[in-house]
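step: validate -> pass
step: tokenize input -> pass
step: predict -> running
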Amino acid sequence: MTEQIWTQECRAKLEDYLQTHKLPSGLGTEESACSIAAINLAITGELTDRIPDCVSKVLGKVTIILQDVMPDKMRNSARYKALLIDMPGTGRNREQRRTEVITAWMWDVVLPQLQDGADEQGFGKTWRHMCEQKSEHTAHAAAYAADTARVSRDAARAAHAAACVSRDAHAAAYAAYAARAAADAAARVADADFWVRIDPIGVLERMTYIDGERK
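step: predict -> pass
step: emit ->
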């Protein structure tokens, strides 16, 4: 497979596509392609969500997971589409830093959103301890406590994913999976402001513009 090169022509194609097409949840079609597929269409014309060489693999994996679950209006916002144009060219030399960004977001922003529900369902102390300690051990304990509560299976999934972050090579993806599970938990209680509070576009911006570096 030849390396995909990001050029000004590709950028112009992507800008035009995003102005005239809607981004769906899932891979989609050539007329309505997902975030990564839209980038690939601009580079090679191929409908695929394979992360192109010019995009950070960590950023690409997280983008695929988060774009599928964020609200349609957010995924098609001007802010998100402007960010998507800058993802190509991020490369693969800052992957650890990008992983640190999304991991911190998971611990400090996403998981604490489920604290009120954990308090109401009787495992609030264990959940709070996990969010404070940020360890595999406390995440396993929180997952067990949430699973035992039975009405908190989504919270248990989020904690299980968090437990994998500290020891798995795919830590960034697990952090995004934790956010997806937390979103499912929020949806069950009709928490309409969940996505606004966790601001998934914000974390993708920080992963794209490492240390504030903008193109």
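step: describe -> The chain has a mean pLDDT of 93.
step: cleanup -> pass
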